[in-house]
Design a protein that fits this description.
The structure holds two protein chains of two kinds. Chain A is an alpha/beta fold. In chain A, about 15% of the residues lie in helices and about 25% in strands. Chain B has a seven-stranded antiparallel sheet with strand order 8-3-10-1-16-15-17. Classes of the chains: A alpha/beta, B alpha+beta.
């Protein structure tokens, strides 16, 4: 196992060291270096310290574990693989991600899952353990976003304007969401057992990763949000 | 001083700040270092700092920091100042020659007090007179720019990367209870010495990451009250808006934040606290021209405190952390960790949610 000491390295040097590393490697003393593991395949990476923006962007089937918080744009346009964050994540996590998993123990900033998409067998999944900021799933076009609200410190499970422009995929929020206003083009309803079956595999994996009990999570009802139409802007300008 | 041509580069910018609630002094070295992990957010076309509590020996005097393009301009400006101020000290601001910072203007500071006879004849209070004088110099004395004008505080800015600017101005030799910093990545406006952040008026200073879509609407409104935007950069107007709302209108910091980052009408409509709803309706109705739209994360510095604020859509990042008596604010957590590796309670304020930190009464 290779250990990269990032203390005095810039982002280029860190990524070059990472490219030269074995399949398994650890970055120590990370502090804000951007683009870590961008486009990377077939590696298992653990990061100690704070990775910079765009961690795991374009990730192509590598596994990343972060033992602290991560900054903005985690998993930007990620394609495959898994990013596990033991802290919180910044804004715009999973921007346009089209495959793979982002599991976060803590909270997410604004615009988590913005423009997530899916195609055939590619279904990206993002699970947030705490609460998410405003504009969750903005323009969501596919994939699955789950917010568990396990620890919300008295805050709502999601901020203002969730699902703005959502036109594909599914969002699951744990709770009845009575205090949350959704836009007109989506439907929010209690999740049935069939709905939950669809995400059980991911919830179980998440609970194994962060040592939670699935049964306990499921003791609270989930709300599932789906778009009413694949084309929410129909007739905005012309009939199409 | 040379003004660069119109350049258009994709956006970035970095901000950082630290304050001791106990009023404990910190040298400028820590805030300078905090900008290093965020190096790539700037492009070398501007960096700057504001330090509070740094001039205890002259704390009762306004510290004017001024850029001059030539010696003649300095002489002319000094003659103008002598007509209305008692100048207790005038000196070159000490700098260190380093290869990273070039083409510097002539940089002086003056510790001044307005002449009582002038104030009496103009029937103005001290602060208003100093603010008007700053506007007058910046607009009318070609080649002279007052870039700092508060008491017991000062800004230091240049064209360059912020960590180099800190080195250039020898910030490690100053001690302040609060500091703000900025690394610039100019988008629509020239990268020049006067255009670097912080932008200040009296003791108000602003560092800003973002770009104001409403700049001209805000500027035109502010011009009605004698504020002249002369520095070719959008951020300048935020400083004047804060001066107008806080000093002239007497709003609280929280109210001023609700004016410039007002909640959406739909959000106000769903408020359950009716008094709060009424207040927000009032503020949006009274000051519609001071709504600042477009992305911003800012830190406002003032004597005795800091306020951090994001635009209402939160289109820029901002993180806050704490450790003992200190509160840290930065565009990225990495900057906070550089200042304090064991910082606690790291959190991101919501859009339009002001974070106000004040030094304990009597501690500064």
């Amino acid at each position: 196992m290779k250990i990269i000491n990032a203390a005095n390295l810039d982002y280029r040097a860190v990524n070059e060291a990472l490219c030269d590393a074995d399949k398994d490697c650890i970055i120590e003393g990370c502090c804000g270096q951007r683009f870590i593991a961008a486009g990377m395949s077939d590696k298992n990476l653990t990061i100690n310290g704070i990775p910079g923006n765009a961690l795991g962007s374009y990730l192509n089937n590598a596994n990343i574990i972060v033992n602290a918080n991560a900054q903005d744009a985690v998993g930007d346009t990620m394609n495959e693989g898994k990013i596990l964050i033991h802290g919180n994540i910044g804004d715009a996590a999973g921007y346009a991600m089209r495959g793979g998993k982002i599991y976060v123990k803590g909270n997410a900033g604004y615009r988590a899952g913005i423009h997530m998409k899916a195609y055939k067998e590619k279904v990206p999944v993002m699970i947030i353990g705490g609460y998410a900021g405003s504009f969750l799933g903005e323009y969501q076009a596919g994939g699955i976003i789950i917010v568990l609200g396990i620890h919300t410190a008295g805050k709502r499970i999601v901020g203002n304007f969730p699902c703005t422009g959502m036109h594909g995929g599914k969002m699951f929020l744990r709770g009845d969401c009575k205090d949350i206003r959704f836009p007109e083009q989506v439907t929010a309803r209690y999740a049935t057992s069939k709905d939950l079956d669809e995400i059980m595999e991911y919830l179980s994996e998440y609970c194994r990763d962060f040592k939670y009990s699935v049964d306990k999570l499921l003791s609270v009802p989930f709300t599932v949000i789906t778009p009413d139409s694949k084309n929410p802007y129909k007739q905005m300008y012309v009939a199409n | 001083m040379k003004i660069e041509g119109q350049v258009r580069i994709p956006s970035g910018c970095a901000i950082s700040a630290v304050i001791s609630k106990d009023g404990k002094k910190m040298s400028g070295e820590m805030i300078t270092n905090s900008m290093k992990p965020m190096h790539d957010r700037s492009n070398g076309l501007g960096g700057g700092f504001a330090g509070y509590g740094i001039y205890p020996d002259y704390k009762d005097f306004y510290a004017l920091h001024i850029f001059f393009d030539t010696r003649d301009t300095r002489k002319k400006c000094e003659a103008f100042l002598k007509e209305q101020f008692e100048i207790v000290q005038s000196e070159i601001i000490p700098t260190r020659k380093i290869p990273a910072i070039t083409d510097e203007p002539i940089i002086w500071r003056y510790f001044v007090a307005p002449l009582q006879s002038v104030l009496t004849s103009l029937q103005l209070d001290e602060k208003e007179f100093v603010a008007r004088t700053v506007m007058k110099i910046n607009a009318e004395i070609s080649g002279a720019y007052v870039f700092s004008s508060g008491k017991n505080m000062g800004t230091f800015k240049a064209v360059g990367f912020p960590e180099d600017v800190g080195m250039f101005y020898k910030l490690e030799e100053y001690e302040g209870y609060s500091w703000t910093a900025h690394g610039r990545y100019p988008t629509n406006t020239p990268g020049w010495w006067g255009g670097a952040h912080p932008f200040t008026l009296l003791d108000y200073s602003i560092v800003h990451n973002g770009e104001i879509s409403s700049y001209d609407a805000n500027r035109r409104f502010m011009e009605m009250f004698g504020y002249k935007c002369t520095l070719q950069t959008d951020t300048e107007v935020i400083t004047y808006i804060m001066d107008y709302l806080l000093r002239i209108q007497g709003l609280t910091l929280g109210e001023a934040a609700s004016v410039i980052a007002a909640p959406f009408w739909s959000t106000i409509a769903t408020k359950t606290d009716l008094e709060d709803q009424q207040k927000h309706t009032y503020l949006r109705t009274m000051f519609p021209s001071l709504l600042v739209t477009g992305p911003f994360s800012i830190v406002l510095g003032f004597n005795g405190g800091l306020m951090a604020l994001n635009d209402r859509l939160k289109l820029r990042s901002m993180v806050v952390g704490e450790k003992n008596d200190k509160v840290f604010i930065a565009s990225e957590e990495s900057a906070i960790r550089t200042m304090e590796p064991s910082a606690e309670k790291i959190w991101s304020p919501a859009g339009g949610e002001p974070v106000i930190i004040k030094v304990k009464e009597g501690a500064f």
